[in-house]
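Would you mind writing out a protein's amino acid sequence and the numbers that encode its backbone to help me picture the idea?
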Amino acid sequence: MNDIIADSIARIRNAAMRRKESSRLLYSKTVESILSVLQTKGYIDSFKADESEVKRYIDVFLKYDDKGRSAISEIKRVSKPGRRIYTAAKNVKKFKHGFGTIVISTSKGVLSNDDAHKQNAGGEALCSVW
């Protein structure tokens, strides 16, 4: 597998469409950082790393409202291995008029677009969520 981030995003999207309670992702520090941003922004309920097996996994628990709709309407991979998308610090703005989030990998860590704008940091746009 070349792109573990795209695989994780696809697993989350598929689990949300099927109204699953949780999804199991392959472990990566970058994926764990993305999930912490998603949890902070309220798109997922929680996650925990499972280190009991030979391969490490992350169990993600999805969040739904009272009517059973997922908190994630859409999640997309922005920067891909074949085409990297970088954003300068001055170009980091609101996404979907503040209703969405872009996860950016900066020199200060993996941040949401709001946090990157506050810290005046640019970087690679990993994924967008709303």
